[in-house]
């Protein structure tokens, strides 16, 4: 069964550093998403991406965040200057027909900011 | 704005028992989707079951079924013949049907433990 692949599975970074979280969506999917889950809390929407542009973003997705699809296969989330409160599990997801066909989530990247 | 509420932070049942997880939601939308996602200790998000709001028939997937009460805005998940592998966090989720890149709104989750 096709998978959404996220790398790395765990990243530790110092406060103030830039991090890039990488995702390889399912190959024929056109819609891409990032979600965040702070430990013990609910899963929160960050951003959706379609046709090489952001479709929607949440209030969490401020200027320190950016997304990119640099080469037609990867989908990246960049956090420019990490803060302690950015420590969370970050999930990438993709779908073929927007949300109608349902999402496939990746297994997540655990980001720890120290 | 849409909200999803799960009022049971934790539940525990014996293996082979049936368990029902509760979920209510609030929306002014008439066309939307509801989901239950499972998050095992591996932290991956796994779709358990999906319900389209325009369908009156309750969705079922093997041992998993829902009780969708649209007027009451209630969407409970029933797990029959529970198994040890069902131990996980379960998230109820809502998505409105107005654009192709609709976001999913999750509830706070119910931690389900299946005891041997």
Considering DSSP H and I runs of 4 or more, what fraction of the residues of chain B is helical? under 10%
Structural class of chain B: mainly beta
C-alpha termini separation of chain B:
41 Å
- % residues in beta strands of chain B: over 45%
**End-to-end separation of chain A:** 36 Å
- SSE pattern of chain A: EEEEEEEEEEE
Detail the poorly predicted runs of chain A: none
**Compute the gyration radius of chain B: what is it?**
14 Å
SSE layout and pairings?
The complex is a heterodimer of chains A (114) and B (116).
Chain A: E1 5-7, E2 10-13, E3 19-24, E4 31-37, E5 43-50, E6 53-57, E7 65-68, E8 75-79, E9 88-95, E10 104-105, E11 109-113
Parallel strand pairs in A: 2-11
Antiparallel strand pairs in A: 1-3, 3-8, 4-5, 4-9, 5-6, 7-8, 9-10, 9-11
Chain B: E1 3-5, E2 10-14, E3 19-21, E4 24-26, E5 32-39, E6 46-52, E7 60-61, E8 64-69, E9 74-79, E10 88-96, E11 105-106, E12 110-115
Parallel strand pairs in B: 2-12
Antiparallel strand pairs in B: 1-4, 3-9, 5-6, 5-10, 7-8, 8-9, 10-11, 10-12
How would you describe the overall organization of this protein?
The complex is a heterodimer of chains A (114) and B (116). Chain A is mainly β. Chain A contains no helices and eleven strands. Chain A has strands spanning 5-7, 10-13, 19-24, 31-37, 43-50, 53-57, 65-68, 75-79, 88-95, 104-105, 109-113. In chain A, strands 2, 4, 5, 6, 9, 10 and 11 form a seven-stranded mixed sheet that branches. The termini of chain A are far apart. The mean pLDDT of chain A is 92. Chain B is mainly beta and 116 residues long. In chain B, 0% of the residues lie in helices and 52% in strands. In chain B, strand 7 and strand 8 form a beta hairpin. The relative contact order of chain B is 0.34.
